[in-house]
Fold:
Amino acid sequence: MWDKEVLVSAGRNDAQSWSHSRGITGKCNGLQSSGDSGANVKRLEQETESKILQLKEQSSRVSRDVGDMLLRQVTTVKN
Structure:
């Protein structure tokens, strides 16, 4: 059961560090109210899709790392 908790925690920590490093705090950086809203929507959709793909890649890497760590822990012979 703790395996799932470790994976969830690792994924959460990775997402938090990613969003912090990008300065994402619920604000839309660069969004101007006087600009073309259609262009802003399209740009935000593209940025969102890009960020989703990055998060998927990072989460799969974390999952592999956690899996490897757990496998090493289970297979290590303790004296």
Observations:
- Residues 14 and 20 are 10 Å apart (CA to CA).
